[in-house]
Amino acid sequence: MKSRNLILNLFFLVIAAGQLFGSWHDIKSIEYAFKPLILIWITVYFLLNTGPAPYRKLVLLAFFFSWVGDLLLMFAWKHDLFFFAGVGGFFASQVAYIQAFRKFAVSDEKGFVARKPIWILPFGFYLVFIFFLILPGLEGIMIPVVFLYAVSLIGMSVAALNRYQRVDSNSFGLMFSGSLLFLVSDSLLAYNRFVTEIPNGGFWVMLTYIGAQYLIMQGLCRDA
Question: Which structural domain, as residue segments, surrounds residue 34?
Answer without folding.
Answer: 2-222
